[in-house]
Input
Amino acid sequence: MVTIVFALAAANLGLGFALAMALDRLAVWSIPGSEGGVGAGGRGDGARSEGEGDERATVRSDDWSQKLKLAEVDPKSAVERLLWIVKLETSSHREHLIGLDRAFFDPISPQLIAKELRQRLEAFHLLLESWIAEADAEREQPSPTRDALEELLLDQAFQLKSCADGLADAGRDEVARQLATAMALINGLRDRADEILCQLLTQQDRLHTIADRYRTYGERTTLTRLGLASLFDEWWSEDEEHVRLVSLVMLDLDRFEPFTRRVGAARGDVALLRFGDMLHDLLRKDRGFDRVARFSGQRFVMFLGDTSSKNASKGAERIRQTIEATSFSMGEETSEVTASLAVVEVGKSEGPDDFIVRLESTLSDCKKAGGNCSQLNSGDESVRIELPQYQVNVHVIELDEEVLQVC
Output
């Protein structure tokens, strides 16, 4: 495996200097708003008076007010404000874990990585506790959004604590496992917070108020979950009777988590970015209204406007066969790619809570069938899409060069 972070230092000055550099770099990875790397809302080494704690809480609140303003976020309630903070702070913590994941592929003692990872998880756990307290303070105002957010934070706090505890005296394999677990937890928190925020803004008819940076990402302007919801909002504002056909294809890469554990989270991120680019290339250019959205993790949704479920099924199966002919290239290694695809045609009276449930249920049926297949949900049941083999092109997605540019 190509070394990513400290290769030049190790080659020129030896492993000892590389280790020193690693420790120095790990030490400066601190959580925004923290002192001494403990974290916002965390506990310092010395004792604090009650007044000092209140003063720091006020500073943190003012700090986040400024950050939200710079992030072009204007929350209308305490719960929405907390959701945005969770969303933005989780992205920051994820970058720290990506850095630790990169270091894991270098000749660095796993105990050093385990120590830093444990400190980071414990600091993030303190943040979660502070967020739980903020959510609990809003209990007097009945809100399904508040309840969903508090439940999410409580679950994440419990699992992150267990992950941190599992790092005591851990060997290399256990550190790798706990690092992968921590990354999965952070990804889950990010995606679930996005889902709750999306539901809130949809209910309040405020999707059109969010900044463009939260609707799309990447050079190909792949839609985010908020962007997909905004697209539906705009589509139906021009078609209030829901006369125009809309079909959706939900795609999930098969066995992607074992792949990222083998190549690292940084390469996994690049793989998903390049894979999304490939999906853009597979969309129809001559007709229809097609868009690609990153729904969560390795899951994408394709919005096919003015398209029946029959035509969407044909397109989905062609895409599945193309993915089957695709591989990720990592130096001299290659990894084959397959995906499961679910197709639904949105009913005239259906809202997101209805068709997303159908999509995810159909995708689950694909996974139970072994993956690498497409299924159509017509409303009553899921049926496998059986079509002849199309003539598709072989695709190779290169990963190494992009990752080295990022590091």
